[in-house]
């Protein structure tokens, strides 16, 4: 059970193979520009690619693209916002409200204009936006980069709850300590492809 990626090639890269069992957090590190974001985007089927990607044995070819991206959600390092107000982006406003405290965010932030929200707040709100859609797999691109220690620990605690509830996480991170705290497995992206660190 979980995510199985086999022989994925695209944008002149790969083949990449890895697995993310449910309940586990898999870390992905590697030099800037080595293709970590590209791999997450290919798994979410946001960039052209070929190869087998299965969730709990179900091939992504057998579900619609929007349904695949709801189940296997990609959260970029910098998310796009298209409405004026933060709350208008949340598919489930009550579920979003319930996550504000655990993410160290003030209750009033859902009614704030996006333009008044800080970069670190937007980063956590983008994660909340993804979480309220109840994905099975979270593909997170540096979800705590630039956050202070308290906010980083808060995000990690929320992710740990999701892992305990049976979700899987594939997360780009450059922090060794975070890998030790969160990662059940760790891959490094190198010019030769993915290398298992542990
Ligand atoms: N759709 C695309 N088509 C072709 N090349 C792309 C595409 N998207 C990104 N690239 C290129 O692929 C390379 C890898 O980019 P990517 O964003 O995946 O790196 P990264 O490992 O996530 O880097 P960083 O740690 O700096 O975020 C870059 O040189 C980038 O310009």
UniProtKB/TrEMBL annotation:
SMART domains: AAA
GO molecular function, one term: ATP hydrolysis activity
Pfam families cross-referenced by the UniProt entry: ABC_tran
InterPro entries on file: AAA+_ATPase (IPR003593), ABC_transporter-like_ATP-bd (IPR003439), P-loop_NTPase (IPR027417)
Source organism superkingdom: Bacteria
Keyword terms: ATP-binding, Cell inner membrane, Cell membrane, Membrane, Nucleotide-binding
Record keyword Metal-binding present: no
Domain ABC transporter: 3-197
Annotated PROSITE patterns: ABC_TRANSPORTER_2 (PS50893)
DNA repair keyword on record: no
Protein's UniProt name: ABC-type iron transport system FetAB ATPase subunit
Species of the source: Cupriavidus plantarum
